[in-house]
Amino acid sequence: MKNLFIAVAISCFLFSCKQEKKTTENDTTMVMDSVEQIKENIAPFTWEGANVYFLLTDRFFNANPENDINFDRNEETGKLRGFMGGDIAGITHKIEQGYFDKLGVNAIWFTPVVEQIHGATDEGTGNTYGYHGYWAKDWTALDPNFGTRKELAKLVETAHDHGIRILMDVVINHTGPVTEEDPVWPDEWVRTGPPCQFTTYENTTECTLVENLPDIYTESDEPVVLPDALLAKWKEEGRLSTELDELNTFFDRTGHPRAPRFYLIKWLTDYVNDMGIDGFRVDTVKHVNEESWQDLYEEASYAFQNWKNKHPDEVLDDEPFFMVGEVYNYGISGGREFDLGDKKVDYFDHGFKSLINFELKSDADKDYETIFSKYSDLLHTKFKDKGFMNYLSSHDDGNPWDKEREKPFKAANVLLLTPGASQIYYGDETSRDLTIEGTEGDATLRSFMNWEDIDSTATKEILTHWQKLGQFRRNHPAVGAGKHKRLGKSPYVFSRTYTDGDFKDKVVIGLDLPKGKKSLWVKGFFGDGTTLYDAYSNTEVVVKNGKVILDNPYDTALLEVPSS
């Protein structure tokens, strides 16, 4: 087995394999300097144990101030309810800087970047623009506030160069709200009532989520014509004939009826076909009939394979197209099905490899062993060959775990070491404030990324811990996708093992260890005489009498077998 290390660790081994080795704190947080080294040292990827970074495109990094205002979006808004300048180029910039490499991220999910409504609206929480990306006006265009198609293509290419997958956030449940600048779509496309009641299948899927959020007839197979407003927009932009020709080609190839959902599916899968987007994070899953998701998955898979066929030198691996869904309030303890009141739906049978798990934040206060053993058991039984994505904070969950950011180290331990895919919400790793005074509703969760705090001593210490765990997780599929077993109760030591064909990965991790000299029990997992490397302290040790001895100021150990 070829295990993987940060560059510092590898260079240390070149000097000696028998002496204890340590590096400075700064060295510990560094990763490979070149793209070639990054590619060379990336472990086999698995979505079941992916380390996903989720960010609001508008709130992460502003690389191009010239695109900050478009469509006369100058109205005063509620606090944190207007555009703030973050863009696609900003994400690319941080990839190029190595920020995600240092954090061990191997997939990035960003909020939708299609063109948003031009006007502002007040849903009762203050005047708001579509900065968050969930209020689409035109799925065929990118919003200039976020960037251009060329910039999106560069983002995907740059991410792939770093071994990072791209998850595009997609919405087919609803259009954006109606404003003076954004007329309602035609009656045959959308319903404007009744409001959802969330007690039956029908009043969850055939209804409007909130007032003034037109719901698309995704369940319909009735052909519809394109809205006049959209045709006029395309004509003004000089691309009417191109869009119509592409639609004719799509419907001729697929034989699908020209029903609303198939227009949206065509428009969204174009980004996969043209750029090699690796997967979709799908919004508002339970509010759309599940057959629509199967349709989306099939067309996205076709587009992904088409892109791979045209770009063989850019293909990362044989992983199929990936879809993870947001079924609000879904928890893994209930198994694969979600109860809609009068009907249960297994979304995994309709295109989804994974669903977002809303349960970890309620489990996070339990002891590590209870959490880890539960999630490992579920991952390898009820969710075998599927998966789930864990989180502790997000953009629309008003009750995140540790909202006051008082336990950032435990948050890292729970999120990054719990079996399943992990979803870091931007700023989890830097304790970005989630309690912004003067905000209404979920705006408090959506402040601009706190880059200015990274140089502070306290934030550096927190970020370094997240980086060490994140890199170890990325380098070892066993951490997120492997089977868990406790090796020692006090101090707490556990193993993870992952096997896929000829590839086998095994690691040992210790948490809440005493600072200073400590003994970690590894008997039955690593034999006496085995040389191990602690990636947390950059120390080489040898197993003796079923244990290893470490002497350092850390309460965490990440033990791996050195590569030969």
- Rg (C-alpha, Å): 24 Å
Count of alpha and pi helical runs: 17
Q: Unreliable segments (pLDDT under 50, ≥5 consecutive)?
A: 1-40
Please report the total strand number as a whole number: 24
The geometry reads as: globular
* End-to-end Cα distance: 9 Å
Query: pLDDT average, as an integer?
Result: 93
Helix content: 25-40%
With strands numbered from the N-terminus, the spatial order across the biggest sheet is 1-2-7-10-11-14-15-16
The percentage of residues in β strands lies in: 15-25%
The chain-level structural class is alpha/beta
Q: Report the sheet with the most strands, covering strand number, pairing sense and barrel closure.
A: 8 strands, parallel, barrel
Written description of the protein model:
It is a single chain. With 564 residues, this protein is α/β, with parallel strands linked by helices. 29% of the residues lie in helices and 19% in strands. It has 17 helices and 24 strands. The strands form seven sheets. The chain has an eight-stranded parallel barrel with strand order 1-2-7-10-11-14-15-16, surrounded by four helices. A six-stranded antiparallel beta sheet has the order 17-18-19-24-21-22. Helix 5 (88-97) packs parallel to helix 7, helix 11 (260-275) packs parallel to helix 12 (290-310) and helix 15 packs parallel to helix 16. The longest helix has 21 residues, at 290-310. It is globular. Residues 1-40 have low confidence and may be disordered.
